[in-house]
Amino acid sequence: MKTSVLWPLVLLLHKVCKTSANCQLRDFYPIHHQYYQPGDVIVGSTVLLSFLLSSPKAFNQQPPHMLPEESFVVTKNYQLVLALVFAVQEINENPQILPNITLGFHIYDTHSDSMLTYQTTMQLVSTRNRFVPNYKCDFQDNLITVIGALHSKASHQIANVFSIYKVPQLLVGSAPQMMDTTKIICSYWMVPSEALQYMGILHLLLHFQWVWIGFIADDNGETFVQIMLPILIQHGICIAFIETYPKNVNFDDDNEGILKRGEDIYGQVMNSTANALVFYGDVDSMIFLLLLLNLPELNDMIQKPKGKVWILTAEMEFKALVFQRGWDIQMLHGAISFAIHSNELSGFQPFLQSRNPSNTQEDGFFKDFWEQAFNCMWPNASLEKINGNICSGQERLENLPGPVFEMSVTGHSYSIYNAVYAVAHALHSMHSSSSKRTATMQGRRRQFQNHRPWQLHHFLKHVSFNNSAGDKVSFDKNGEVVAGFDLFNWFTFPNQSFVRVKVGRVDPQVPSDKAFIVNEDTMVWPSWFHQKRPLSVCNDNCHPGYSKKKKEGQPFCCYDCIPCPEGKISNQKNMDDCFRCPGDKYPNKDQTLCILKVVTFLSYEEPLGIGLAIGAISCSFLTTLVLGLFMKHHNTPIIKANNRNLTYTLLLSLLLCFLSALLFIGHPEKVTCIFRQTAFGIIFSVAVSCVLAKTITVVLAFMATKPGSRARKWMGKSLANSIVLSCSLTQAVICTVWLATSSPFPDVDMHSMTGQVVLECNESSPTMFYCVIGYIGFLATTSFSVAFLARNLPDSFNEAKFITFSMLIFCSVWLSFFPNYMSTKGKYVVAVELFSILASSAGLLSCIFFPKCYIILLRPELNNKEQLIRRKA
Fold first, then answer.
1. For residue 174, what is the DSSP state?
2. What is the CB neighbour count within 10 angstroms for residue 529?
3. Per-residue confidence band for 713, with pLDDT thresholds at 50, 70 and 90
């Protein structure tokens, strides 16, 4: 089947005088058009001085019927022609612009063939009806500017010729980044820069968090891929697949090849886990996309379609060939498309509705368009029998489905409309500038005749006006129109109609943080996703509490989810790594958030602190009672027998030991941190030194009773005092060195206890701390050893037995202290040390003094000298 497309290509604008006594009415230059393969639109401008016309006639010559019997027309392109006609009529009826001048136009065809494109282009620099390039001997076709084309390839080919002559070209197709701009030096772009569309696509994908996408492009999409791919990767977006399709779908000699290529792409699309697909194409690409989506209807062997979100670029328009108008378009429901910014033009829809056979006698496109659009044929006397419906002329354009014809202005039609006005305003400025230098008609004619295309550049660069829709039209320094892109969401219906709803905008004229706007609340999604925002990821998202782990051999968007290690969290989806909470916070059970830690220390307000404080005070009170009892019975034999001063010193040191325990309870302060360990160390050294002195005194006292013993000379208070003083001073020196070199200080421990910030005293120097404890242990071990050796002395003199038991308890407590101290954390470290102080002190008090208290209070008969000197039998 041979398919042809009605495609207006070259629209030449002419300037002729509107009112003049010297004007001669001549037939207007006829429209030249043919039926051909998909092409582009070019609009040019000529100045006619010799052949003048009082009123324009848009179509004044019926072209011969050249449409083959089995050819088709892309009816939707007819709006492009009508947009030009509408703009020309408005300008010619407006006395404020180009007064006394009438615009006309010619339509030329590039045939989407490079050779024919160049041939058509060269016709514009040749004398009428004589193809002699660069030779013009008349003033009928004095080319001023060209408007076109929709295809980048045709624009490039036309620019190769017109750039030589510096003819201004107003292009309504692809933006500069898609071409070699060095060769298009005389061009003005009626569409925004392609870079703006790249930014829009990127922001769209990031907004909806689509990081796993498919990409389908025509044969010319290589540049798009080369530019977009690094940008997408930089922002964490991966390409699931890249497919290309043939640019020109002619359905003639290679139907099988086209269908095979379509089946390959269809399989890739439907088998991919990517739900967001970017479809890059030009104005004709919708023809292939419709074929792609309807392959299951053409081949029962192909798998049924799955829901996908199609993201369409601004160059594409929703159009279909005649035989495609009945095809299902439901797969495009919820699609998102970029479009050249446009607004409804006042009077454009009534203008379209007015097109009918009675007022389009000079429209060479009308009858062919009408037949193809309404699937009918006009009555023809040359045909004996007409197969199918007969056109009545009463059909209405507004009843046509969107893919066939739209009543609303499209982005490309809007660009053509603005391009015609841009040329008109530039010509008006150039004409006004010339009119200031001469006022005669003859002079004016000669100025028109002497105008050259390059002279219009100055006026086009500075053109700026508001069109009938209220939009400002102007060019930037690069010759690109200052405009943005609209974002549309498609609603499709079973009757092949559709509605495009504007849901956003890409605007380069606002701050970058507001350049991309999308209103998700008004959007619809493909029915496959049940009106929920689709996900487009390589695999399921990693929930909070997990982090991503890259899969070997896969793109970075494909990963496994692993739980966060202990002590770390992830509070967002798809985090690359887990992180630790700040020091004052800790992870919750699910490792999804950080919870503020509780500030804790061993205080008087909690049971543990209260219990230890009561224990310390109780022991202190008990020690005070024992001391008072001993002082009351100061002169009794049992008190005198063991060095009363040494006993009182030991009781006072034990009292201070119990009281020093209170320094370990409460909020750590600088003073308490400095004195708690040193006071404990020195006081405990005094206590243990007293025990050691008492033990040595007991041993010497027993030895002194033996005849001829030399121990008598060691007996006396001086020995005991020397032992206590020397041992205590040694500990005092150790504590002084500790305080002088690295004294303890208040500190905050945020890590040892989960969920707690522990206020503590930092010992600063663990070595000095262990030296203090070790020295006390040394004294206790020495005392225990001496007492153990004296355990078999006679009962009446055997205080060493009680000292042995007390030292056994003392050493046991402090030997268990070290492993408990090392394994305990937080405030319980302080509690362990505090308990050890109380337990060891209580052991000394009970083992050494309670037996004496028992005799004093309950067995006073034993408290006499005879009993004390009685030897064991």
1. S
2. 15
3. low
DSSP alpha helix (H) spans, 757-864 = 766-789, 800-823, 827-844, 850-858
Q: Is 213 helix (H, G, I), strand (E, B) or coil?
A: strand
850: pLDDT strictly greater than 50: yes
Residues 170-218 have pLDDT tens digits of 888 765 454 444 445 678 888 888 889 999 999 999 999 999 999 998 8
This prediction has a pTM of 0.67
Report whether pLDDT(355) > 80: yes
Where do the domains of the chain lie, and which CATH numbers do they carry?
Answer: 10-192+419-464 (3.40.50.2300), 194-313+318-340+485-529 (3.40.50.2300), 546-596 (no CATH), 607-869 (1.20.1070.10)
Place of tokens 């009781």: 651
pLDDT of residue 783: 87
Q: How many CB atoms lie within 10 A of CB 592?
A: 16
Q: Give the contacts of 385 (CB within 8 A, at least 6 positions apart).
A: none
Strand partners, 404: none
The answer, yes or no, to whether the previous bond of 740 is cis (omega within 30 of 0) is no
Look at residue 489 in the predicted model and tell me its pLDDT. Answer: 94
- Are the C-beta atoms of 629 and 707 separated by less than 8 Å? no
- Mean pLDDT, range 514-535, rounded to an integer: 89
Rounded-to-integer distance, Cα 388 and Cα 237, Å = 52
Q: What one-character DSSP code corresponds to residue 307? A: -
CA distance linking residue 455 with residue 724, whole number of Å? 116
Dist CA 356 CA 407 (whole Å): 15
Locate 493 and state its tokens.
């219906």
35 and 65 in contact (C-beta within 8 Å)? no
> Which residues, 6+ apart, have CB-to-CB distance to 380 below 8 Å?
386
Identify the burial level of 741 via C-beta atoms within 10 angstroms of its C-beta, where 0-12 means exposed, 13-18 middle and 19 or more buried. Answer: exposed
